[in-house]
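Backbone-to-sequence.
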């Protein structure tokens, strides 16, 4: 293997690694969505922007309502209905997770673009023995598809 082939193979492996990293990042967010997604509900009515909110299950309306608006005396006096509650994070945490995920995805996209440019610049267009390589347009489509999947996972995470 000559120098050009090894440089090309190195940059191609970096592009593949960034695609794999983007897939791993999306899978990590998907696992987190199923494990702790119920604590991130920024669209829940009554959620505070800067502090955690305690929600209480109200069986009459089959919904979670903020504890500060619920009449807790009804649950304290009745032993038939146990008090079911959960605490959710403030909206600011959800905004940080959402924007941080988008920044991480853009960072991976930018790194892959740089590596693909370096990979494609090793050989000239008219040079012989040019190995197979994917042009940036094909690699970009892969990242855009992964970006759409990431948005779906973030939507699942926040609901």
């Amino acid at each position: 293997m000559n120098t050009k082939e090894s440089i090309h193979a190195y940059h191609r492996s970096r592009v593949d690694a960034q695609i794999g990293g983007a897939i791993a990042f999306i899978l990590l967010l998907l696992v987190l969505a199923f494990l702790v997604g119920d604590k991130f509900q920024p669209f829940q009515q009554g959620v505070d922007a800067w502090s955690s909110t305690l929600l209480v299950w109200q069986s009459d309306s089959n919904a979670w309502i903020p504890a500060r608006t619920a009449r807790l005396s009804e649950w304290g006096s009745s032993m038939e209905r146990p008090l079911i509650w959960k605490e959710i994070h403030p909206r600011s945490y959800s905004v940080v997770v959402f924007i941080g995920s988008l920044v991480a995805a853009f960072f991976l996209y930018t790194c892959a673009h740089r590596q693909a440019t370096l990979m494609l610049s090793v050989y000239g267009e008219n040079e012989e023995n040019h190995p197979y390589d994917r042009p940036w347009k094909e690699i970009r489509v892969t990242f855009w598809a992964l970006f759409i999947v990431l948005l779906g996972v973030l939507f699942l995470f926040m609901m």
